[in-house]
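Re: the 297-residue chain
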Amino acid sequence: METQQKIKLIADRDFGGNFDLSIKFIKQNYTSVLKGLVYLIPLLMIAAFFVPNLFDIYYDLGRGINNSNNGSFSQDNPFEGISILGIIGAYILLLIVMFLIIVYTISYMALYQKSENGTVTVSEVWSKTFKVALPLLLGSLLFGIAFCIGYIFCIIPGLIVAVYLGFYIYVYINEDLSIIDSFQRSFALVQNNFWVTLGFGMAFSMLIGMVSVIFILPMYAGMIASMLQVEFFANDIVFYICITIVFCIYILLYPALYMAMGTLYYSHRAKLDGPDIESEIENIGNYNYEQESSYEK
Protein backbone atom coordinates (compact mmCIF):
# COMPACT_ATOMS: atom_id res chain seq x y z
CA MET A 1 0.00 0.00 0.00
CA GLU A 2 1.47 3.34 -1.07
CA THR A 3 1.66 5.94 1.69
CA GLN A 4 0.41 9.46 0.98
CA GLN A 5 2.92 12.23 0.46
CA LYS A 6 2.76 14.82 3.21
CA ILE A 7 1.75 18.28 2.04
CA LYS A 8 3.90 21.18 3.19
CA LEU A 9 1.54 23.55 5.00
CA ILE A 10 3.91 26.15 6.48
CA ALA A 11 5.01 28.15 3.45
CA ASP A 12 4.45 31.67 2.13
CA ARG A 13 1.89 31.44 -0.69
CA ASP A 14 -0.23 33.91 -2.65
CA PHE A 15 -4.02 33.76 -2.95
CA GLY A 16 -3.98 31.31 -5.85
CA GLY A 17 -1.36 29.14 -4.19
CA ASN A 18 -3.41 28.88 -1.01
CA PHE A 19 -6.55 28.11 -2.99
CA ASP A 20 -4.86 25.30 -4.95
CA LEU A 21 -3.21 23.86 -1.84
CA SER A 22 -6.53 23.94 0.03
CA ILE A 23 -8.20 21.88 -2.69
CA LYS A 24 -5.25 19.47 -2.69
CA PHE A 25 -5.27 19.12 1.11
CA ILE A 26 -9.05 18.62 1.23
CA LYS A 27 -8.88 15.93 -1.45
CA GLN A 28 -6.15 14.10 0.42
CA ASN A 29 -7.54 14.37 3.97
CA TYR A 30 -11.31 14.88 3.66
CA THR A 31 -12.17 11.21 4.13
CA SER A 32 -9.75 10.85 7.05
CA VAL A 33 -11.38 13.76 8.87
CA LEU A 34 -14.90 12.47 8.25
CA LYS A 35 -13.99 9.10 9.74
CA GLY A 36 -13.58 10.77 13.11
CA LEU A 37 -16.63 13.01 12.80
CA VAL A 38 -19.13 10.21 12.16
CA TYR A 39 -19.30 9.77 15.93
CA LEU A 40 -21.19 13.08 16.07
CA ILE A 41 -24.08 11.79 13.93
CA PRO A 42 -26.08 10.54 16.97
CA LEU A 43 -25.97 14.07 18.43
CA LEU A 44 -27.33 15.46 15.16
CA MET A 45 -30.09 12.86 15.14
CA ILE A 46 -31.07 13.80 18.70
CA ALA A 47 -31.06 17.49 17.78
CA ALA A 48 -33.28 16.75 14.77
CA PHE A 49 -35.71 14.86 17.04
CA PHE A 50 -36.20 17.95 19.22
CA VAL A 51 -36.98 20.29 16.30
CA PRO A 52 -40.73 20.89 15.95
CA ASN A 53 -42.33 19.63 12.72
CA LEU A 54 -42.08 22.74 10.53
CA PHE A 55 -43.82 20.95 7.67
CA ASP A 56 -46.90 20.49 9.85
CA ILE A 57 -46.81 24.20 10.72
CA TYR A 58 -46.57 25.17 7.04
CA TYR A 59 -49.43 22.75 6.30
CA ASP A 60 -51.62 24.56 8.85
CA LEU A 61 -50.57 27.93 7.46
CA GLY A 62 -51.51 26.82 3.96
CA ARG A 63 -54.85 25.57 5.18
CA GLY A 64 -55.47 28.91 6.92
CA ILE A 65 -54.70 30.78 3.69
CA ASN A 66 -57.07 28.55 1.74
CA ASN A 67 -59.82 29.09 4.31
CA SER A 68 -59.38 32.85 4.17
CA ASN A 69 -59.57 32.77 0.37
CA ASN A 70 -62.81 30.82 0.65
CA GLY A 71 -64.26 33.39 3.04
CA SER A 72 -63.90 31.30 6.22
CA PHE A 73 -61.38 32.08 8.93
CA SER A 74 -59.76 29.69 11.37
CA GLN A 75 -58.93 30.73 14.92
CA ASP A 76 -56.32 27.98 15.26
CA ASN A 77 -52.77 29.12 15.91
CA PRO A 78 -50.35 27.03 13.77
CA PHE A 79 -47.52 27.82 16.19
CA GLU A 80 -49.42 26.66 19.26
CA GLY A 81 -47.75 23.24 19.44
CA ILE A 82 -44.18 24.48 19.13
CA SER A 83 -41.97 23.46 22.03
CA ILE A 84 -39.65 26.29 23.01
CA LEU A 85 -37.57 23.91 25.11
CA GLY A 86 -37.26 21.60 22.09
CA ILE A 87 -35.95 24.42 19.91
CA ILE A 88 -33.48 25.53 22.60
CA GLY A 89 -32.31 21.94 23.13
CA ALA A 90 -31.79 21.38 19.40
CA TYR A 91 -29.93 24.68 19.06
CA ILE A 92 -27.58 23.89 21.96
CA LEU A 93 -26.79 20.45 20.53
CA LEU A 94 -26.09 21.99 17.13
CA LEU A 95 -23.72 24.52 18.69
CA ILE A 96 -21.89 21.69 20.48
CA VAL A 97 -21.59 19.71 17.26
CA MET A 98 -20.37 22.74 15.30
CA PHE A 99 -17.81 23.52 17.99
CA LEU A 100 -16.50 19.93 18.05
CA ILE A 101 -16.30 19.81 14.24
CA ILE A 102 -14.22 22.98 14.16
CA VAL A 103 -11.87 21.91 16.96
CA TYR A 104 -11.52 18.37 15.59
CA THR A 105 -10.67 19.58 12.08
CA ILE A 106 -8.09 22.08 13.30
CA SER A 107 -6.60 19.50 15.70
CA TYR A 108 -6.27 17.12 12.76
CA MET A 109 -4.36 19.73 10.76
CA ALA A 110 -2.07 20.48 13.73
CA LEU A 111 -1.22 16.80 14.19
CA TYR A 112 -0.82 16.38 10.43
CA GLN A 113 1.63 19.28 10.31
CA LYS A 114 3.71 17.84 13.16
CA SER A 115 3.64 14.24 11.89
CA GLU A 116 6.50 12.69 9.93
CA ASN A 117 4.49 11.37 6.99
CA GLY A 118 1.07 13.02 7.31
CA THR A 119 -0.53 9.98 8.95
CA VAL A 120 -2.91 10.83 11.82
CA THR A 121 -5.20 8.46 13.73
CA VAL A 122 -8.75 9.20 14.86
CA SER A 123 -7.90 8.48 18.50
CA GLU A 124 -5.01 10.97 18.41
CA VAL A 125 -7.24 13.70 17.01
CA TRP A 126 -10.06 13.13 19.51
CA SER A 127 -7.53 13.08 22.36
CA LYS A 128 -6.18 16.42 21.18
CA THR A 129 -9.71 17.76 20.70
CA PHE A 130 -10.85 16.95 24.24
CA LYS A 131 -7.60 18.33 25.67
CA VAL A 132 -8.15 21.80 24.20
CA ALA A 133 -11.97 21.88 24.16
CA LEU A 134 -12.60 23.51 27.53
CA PRO A 135 -10.24 26.51 27.15
CA LEU A 136 -11.42 26.99 23.57
CA LEU A 137 -15.02 26.97 24.77
CA LEU A 138 -14.17 29.97 26.93
CA GLY A 139 -12.39 31.56 23.99
CA SER A 140 -15.43 30.98 21.79
CA LEU A 141 -17.62 32.78 24.32
CA LEU A 142 -15.25 35.77 24.31
CA PHE A 143 -15.09 35.69 20.51
CA GLY A 144 -18.90 35.49 20.28
CA ILE A 145 -19.34 38.46 22.63
CA ALA A 146 -16.84 40.56 20.67
CA PHE A 147 -18.50 39.63 17.38
CA CYS A 148 -22.01 40.40 18.68
CA ILE A 149 -20.93 43.80 20.04
CA GLY A 150 -19.40 44.66 16.66
CA TYR A 151 -22.47 43.35 14.83
CA ILE A 152 -24.84 45.42 17.00
CA PHE A 153 -23.07 48.69 16.14
CA CYS A 154 -23.05 47.71 12.48
CA ILE A 155 -22.39 44.60 10.42
CA ILE A 156 -18.96 45.83 9.29
CA PRO A 157 -17.34 46.07 12.79
CA GLY A 158 -18.55 42.54 13.52
CA LEU A 159 -17.05 41.34 10.25
CA ILE A 160 -13.74 43.03 11.06
CA VAL A 161 -13.65 41.33 14.47
CA ALA A 162 -14.39 37.95 12.87
CA VAL A 163 -11.58 38.33 10.31
CA TYR A 164 -8.91 39.64 12.68
CA LEU A 165 -9.61 37.21 15.53
CA GLY A 166 -10.81 34.23 13.46
CA PHE A 167 -7.49 32.33 13.62
CA TYR A 168 -7.37 32.16 17.44
CA ILE A 169 -8.37 28.47 17.51
CA TYR A 170 -5.63 27.60 15.01
CA VAL A 171 -3.11 29.55 17.08
CA TYR A 172 -4.15 28.00 20.39
CA ILE A 173 -3.99 24.44 19.08
CA ASN A 174 -0.83 24.83 16.97
CA GLU A 175 1.29 27.24 18.98
CA ASP A 176 0.36 26.42 22.60
CA LEU A 177 -0.40 30.03 23.56
CA SER A 178 -2.99 31.23 26.06
CA ILE A 179 -6.44 32.25 24.86
CA ILE A 180 -5.69 35.98 25.14
CA ASP A 181 -2.31 35.57 23.46
CA SER A 182 -4.02 33.53 20.73
CA PHE A 183 -6.34 36.45 20.01
CA GLN A 184 -3.36 38.81 19.83
CA ARG A 185 -1.44 36.42 17.61
CA SER A 186 -4.45 36.05 15.29
CA PHE A 187 -4.61 39.84 14.98
CA ALA A 188 -0.92 39.95 14.10
CA LEU A 189 -1.30 37.25 11.44
CA VAL A 190 -4.13 39.10 9.72
CA GLN A 191 -2.84 42.64 10.24
CA ASN A 192 -1.23 42.96 6.81
CA ASN A 193 -3.44 40.34 5.16
CA PHE A 194 -6.96 41.54 5.94
CA TRP A 195 -8.36 41.65 2.40
CA VAL A 196 -6.71 38.37 1.41
CA THR A 197 -8.18 36.68 4.50
CA LEU A 198 -11.62 38.17 3.92
CA GLY A 199 -11.66 37.32 0.23
CA PHE A 200 -10.34 33.80 0.79
CA GLY A 201 -12.94 33.08 3.47
CA MET A 202 -15.75 34.49 1.34
CA ALA A 203 -14.64 32.45 -1.70
CA PHE A 204 -14.72 29.14 0.15
CA SER A 205 -17.91 30.07 2.03
CA MET A 206 -19.62 30.72 -1.31
CA LEU A 207 -18.39 27.41 -2.74
CA ILE A 208 -19.57 25.47 0.28
CA GLY A 209 -22.83 27.43 0.30
CA MET A 210 -23.53 26.38 -3.29
CA VAL A 211 -22.88 22.74 -2.44
CA SER A 212 -25.08 22.96 0.68
CA VAL A 213 -28.07 23.88 -1.51
CA ILE A 214 -28.19 20.21 -2.56
CA PHE A 215 -28.81 19.18 1.03
CA ILE A 216 -31.30 21.96 1.74
CA LEU A 217 -33.49 21.27 -1.31
CA PRO A 218 -35.55 18.50 0.38
CA MET A 219 -36.33 20.92 3.22
CA TYR A 220 -37.54 23.67 0.89
CA ALA A 221 -39.49 21.16 -1.20
CA GLY A 222 -41.21 19.89 1.94
CA MET A 223 -42.14 23.40 3.07
CA ILE A 224 -43.60 24.33 -0.32
CA ALA A 225 -45.47 21.04 -0.63
CA SER A 226 -46.88 21.43 2.88
CA MET A 227 -48.10 24.95 2.09
CA LEU A 228 -49.81 23.47 -0.99
CA GLN A 229 -51.61 20.99 1.31
CA VAL A 230 -49.68 17.86 0.30
CA GLU A 231 -50.41 15.92 3.47
CA PHE A 232 -47.62 13.38 2.97
CA PHE A 233 -44.93 16.00 3.72
CA ALA A 234 -46.60 17.07 6.98
CA ASN A 235 -45.75 13.64 8.39
CA ASP A 236 -43.35 13.66 11.37
CA ILE A 237 -41.11 10.97 9.88
CA VAL A 238 -40.71 12.82 6.58
CA PHE A 239 -39.78 16.02 8.40
CA TYR A 240 -37.32 14.16 10.66
CA ILE A 241 -35.55 12.67 7.63
CA CYS A 242 -35.34 16.05 5.88
CA ILE A 243 -34.08 17.97 8.92
CA THR A 244 -31.51 15.24 9.64
CA ILE A 245 -30.20 15.59 6.08
CA VAL A 246 -29.88 19.34 6.60
CA PHE A 247 -28.01 18.85 9.86
CA CYS A 248 -25.60 16.47 8.13
CA ILE A 249 -24.33 19.49 6.21
CA TYR A 250 -22.38 20.39 9.33
CA ILE A 251 -20.44 17.13 9.27
CA LEU A 252 -20.03 16.94 5.49
CA LEU A 253 -19.14 20.54 4.64
CA TYR A 254 -17.80 22.34 7.71
CA PRO A 255 -14.46 20.46 7.74
CA ALA A 256 -13.71 21.60 4.18
CA LEU A 257 -14.10 25.27 5.15
CA TYR A 258 -11.83 25.00 8.17
CA MET A 259 -9.23 22.96 6.30
CA ALA A 260 -9.13 25.71 3.67
CA MET A 261 -8.79 28.44 6.30
CA GLY A 262 -6.11 26.30 7.96
CA THR A 263 -3.93 26.41 4.86
CA LEU A 264 -4.28 30.20 4.90
CA TYR A 265 -3.31 30.28 8.60
CA TYR A 266 -0.10 28.35 7.92
CA SER A 267 0.69 30.65 4.99
CA HIS A 268 0.21 33.79 7.13
CA ARG A 269 2.35 32.18 9.80
CA ALA A 270 5.19 31.55 7.35
CA LYS A 271 4.91 35.08 6.00
CA LEU A 272 5.14 36.59 9.49
CA ASP A 273 7.70 34.25 11.07
CA GLY A 274 9.68 33.09 8.05
CA PRO A 275 10.05 29.49 6.84
CA ASP A 276 9.70 26.62 9.28
CA ILE A 277 13.25 25.22 9.72
CA GLU A 278 12.07 21.77 10.85
CA SER A 279 9.81 21.44 7.82
CA GLU A 280 12.62 22.54 5.51
CA ILE A 281 14.97 19.89 6.92
CA GLU A 282 12.23 17.27 6.66
CA ASN A 283 11.50 18.23 3.06
CA ILE A 284 15.19 17.93 2.15
CA GLY A 285 15.21 14.45 3.64
CA ASN A 286 12.06 13.48 1.75
CA TYR A 287 13.49 14.88 -1.48
CA ASN A 288 16.71 12.88 -1.10
CA TYR A 289 14.71 9.76 -0.36
CA GLU A 290 12.56 10.27 -3.47
CA GLN A 291 15.68 10.80 -5.57
CA GLU A 292 17.27 7.58 -4.27
CA SER A 293 14.04 5.69 -4.94
CA SER A 294 13.91 6.97 -8.52
CA TYR A 295 17.52 5.93 -9.10
CA GLU A 296 16.80 2.44 -7.81
CA LYS A 297 13.97 2.09 -10.30
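Residues 71-81, 285-297 have pLDDT under 50 and may be disordered.
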